[in-house]
């Protein structure tokens, strides 16, 4: 009888599940749990290691906690100034701080956008909390932001002063930067000078211009074409004022890769001395991917949508590249697949299994992603492990 319970794994088989979240359906931890359940339904007793991953965007703290970091919660300002409970992750003297915890789109009321007024002040408060907790290395994951303020709010929380022509503090948000007359960074938290600060992002946009934060990401945050134009001009003015305050490096940072990440908070981080690195590369190091990979015979990665964006710094591409370098076979799970087999192959992914192959109804795939993913994982086990 063809019964999954009688299947046996290939000798020495060991699976590493290193997938990101299925946004809107499953967290990265839940993806790993469902894939594990499906694999073991087909192959009882299969050796499976779970390492949920993230690329610096929302879900980064959860991935760190799943890897053994301690979750620390603190009350900070949300993007509209309302108080929210946000978390960072700590292990020893290394902190993983996720800006979306404080300043992300998920912190806005449903259906509400604030492209001109949303502030990163709470992200700065999260960094202060990490410093207070004794962090000497801070991995600052950015993405999923509700903000386009160039990190001005974050810098303010860390001691910077931004004033208008009347000597008054600016209104929060990127729109208020149009009124900036003077900037003073001399009172920034002194502890930053002795911390290793890593800006972890999956995008390398500059601050302004056709590929800058407002033009590329502003519309996702509710910015109209007029808003985009206003924000781009305000951020360019902000950089000019900072150039007067701290010199030519302010202009250099504005044009640097990563400055435009998360509404320009990348620029603020660079001003603080952060070193920009691809988010998934940093997170794989922090999460201990290397040692887990050594033991694996098969790696399963994935995210909600495997598409062109995946190939440009998203978690599955980073996992696949690292695994391919070690000669490991990689397959992927996803909600939807928008890449041809040759593109997957170039990325180091042998085969992808979208939920839509098991359930063509997209709405049902989103609503019932967990059980469907388990069924998909059973198929993976039959195809690759028995």
From TrEMBL:
InterPro entries per UniProt: Glyc_kinase_flavodox-like_fold, Glycerate_kinase, Glycerate_kinase_RE-like, Glycerate_kinase_sf
Signal peptide from the UniProt entry: none
Keywords: Kinase, Transferase
Example of a GO MF term: kinase activity
Origin: domain of life: Bacteria
Family affiliation: Belongs to the glycerate kinase type-1 family.
UniProt protein name: Glycerate kinase
Organism from which the protein derives: Streptomyces plumbiresistens
Record lineage: Bacteria, Bacillati, Actinomycetota, Actinomycetes, Kitasatosporales
